[in-house]
Amino acid sequence: MRQTAHFRRFSSTDPIPNDAVRLRIFQDSYKTVAEVEWPTNALTDAGDYFYATPVEIALERALDVQQNYKFREMVVVIDDIKLWDETWGVLLTK
What we know:
This protein is mainly beta. Helix content is about 15%, strand content about 45%. It has a 6-stranded mixed β-sheet, covered by helices on one side.
């Protein structure tokens, strides 16, 4: 049985927790894509995957960074909720 993931949702104007990996979802050439960004912590320097990537791949990368570098959570930064696909998980209001 597969468990559904839950992610806190933020907009691009919200302050983002400094102990979270950020998955930013947006539209590029009529496709929904994502980028990943993370801050410095005790295990890694700040970094990013700042190129439009299919959301499924970016989500895997974000979760990998979160787990490997022990970030507290992975949050979703999305302004247009219509871009979210429920197969990726459940978005929670912050």
